[in-house]
Amino acid sequence: MTWFDTENGQRLLDAEEAILCDFLEDKFGYFSLQTNYIGRNLLKNTRMVHHLLIDGPERNVTCNFNQLPFDSDSIDLIISPHQLECNGDINSLFSELFRVAIPGGRVAIFSFNPYSFAGLRSIACFDNYTPWNSKFISLSFAQKKLKDAGFTIEEGRMIDYQPLFSGQSFSNRIFEDIGARWLPLFANVYFIVARKDVVGVTPLRPKWNKIATGRALTNKLKTIDD
Length: 226
Known about the structure:
It is built from five helices and eight strands, in the order αβββαβααβαβββ. By secondary structure, it is an alpha/beta fold.
């Protein structure tokens, strides 16, 4: 059991999933990837044909987060929920996500904001378990690193202003109203959508073999002679 399995954790995941569903409403493609498992398969809400998970009970790919076993320019959509807190090498992670994303492909990221109730808990409470023993990265720093990797920031949003000091469900509309109006940058979680833009490049769909349990078999991009 993790903190995300608590009442408060589930409430936060509900809020994140609702925002993700809105984002995915008009997104289509062939291959989607979820890089981290936080108790939910977030790919089930996508309209992508194939779902790739590298963590959790539905995992169908086994790999290192920073060395993905996929061809370059092969993944339409990547969802990375709270992966930044667990990764010690953000530069390598973003470079790898940029490599495997197709031109025009998107990366959707959820991460805890260090300047929030969540950040205060990670500093003051000394909880020695995930996610509170992790290093939180600011929205501006994450955006800068995404741009350095080659991405264009398409969307950024702040989520949830509720105290997170307990696992019990707590939700007060006053916190949301005050936070959204007066302290918009102090939400517990931020949501970023980054797009891979490559000038003058048209994405070619890779030919994939069936994904076997525990590994992904990828073929080289099919050459179009026409």
